[in-house]
Specification:
Blueprint: E1 10-18, E2 21-29, E3 38-40, E4 47-49, E5 56-62, H1 67-85, E6 89-95, H2 106-118, H3 131-142, H4 154-164, H5 168-176, H6 183-197, E7 206-209, E8 214-215, H7 223-229
Parallel strand pairs: 5-6
Antiparallel strand pairs: 1-2, 3-4, 4-6, 5-7, 7-8
Helix pairs in contact: 1-3, 2-3, 2-5, 3-4, 4-5
């Protein structure tokens, strides 16, 4: 059996409306420290969205220019976000960049943005990236494919990250293009893991159940509901 490889605060004004009267309360709302956050795997080439102790642990191998990967996000992204958010599911994203025609192309660019958005700890060690927000960011990224083209710009990806609820420090990192990940090593390492799972149909998207040690048939329309109910 394979071994599991291993917000910031925002200013908030609350307006209470009671039968024609209102009272404004100002203060600072902190992110719930118990909510699922993102974390980087020990090998540095995976991003886990969700709790380490979530009962269902998946790896998702995905390529930013893979149209089938975009379909997966369109069809199941909201469900993934829901189960991640309630702590029942953790998804470790392992992006690949094999469809890039040039170094640092569309896929590498998007993969780097994913790691910039997922950097745990925030700007000053306050909280981290909410896992549900990260999943929504991924869903939006794959909804803006530019097959064979340069892909979305840093500004466009930063806007997606902000709308998804990614913390401001990580949004700034996406906008600046800051990322420590080596996308060539990323692709080589994650492809090796993917090949280990399936040496015949080695492709994306691939969803692997880390606890059951098996590849999941994602072409069953009810695969996720069945998995979460089991």
């Amino acid at each position: 059996m394979r071994v599991l490889r291993t917000v910031s605060a925002i200013a908030l004004s609350l307006v209470l409306v009671v039968t024609g009267c209102s009272r404004q309360i100002t203060g600072t709302a902190a992110v719930d420290p118990n909510q699922p956050l993102t974390s980087i795997t020990k090998d540095k080439f995976g991003i886990r969205a969700g709790l380490a102790e979530a009962p269902v642990q998946l790896e998702l191998y995905t390529e930013p220019q893979c149209s089938h990967c975009a379909d997966l996000q369109a069809d199941f992204g909201d469900q993934l976000a829901y189960y991640i958010g309630i702590g029942q599911l953790a998804v470790t994203y392992r992006p690949l960049t094999f469809l890039d025609q040039v170094p640092g192309g569309h896929s590498a660019h998007v993969a780097s943005a994913m790691f910039a958005a997922a950097t745990p700890g925030g700007a000053e060690g306050t909280g981290g990236t909410p896992a549900r927000a990260f999943q929504k960011f991924v869903e939006d990224l794959w909804a803006h494919q530019d097959l064979g083209g340069p892909g979305p710009s840093n500004d466009e990806m930063a806007d997606m990250a902000q709308k998804a609820g990614i913390p401001s420090a990580e949004v700034d990192a996406v906008k600046s293009g800051a990322s420590d990940v080596d996308t060539k090593d990323l692709d080589d390492t994650n492809f090796e893991f993917l090949f280990e799972i399936d040496q015949v149909s080695t492709g994306t998207p691939t969803v692997y159940d880390l606890k059951k040690d098996e590849k999941i048939d994602i072409y069953d329309n009810d695969w996720l509901a069945k998995l979460m109910a089991s």
